[in-house]
Amino acid sequence: MSISIIDKQAVPTGETSIASDSWVTVLSRLAKVQIARIVERRRVRRDVEALLSMDDRTLADIGLRRCEVEYAARYGRRPVDPAADNGRQR
Question: Which domain holds residue 71?
Answer without folding.
Answer: 37-78
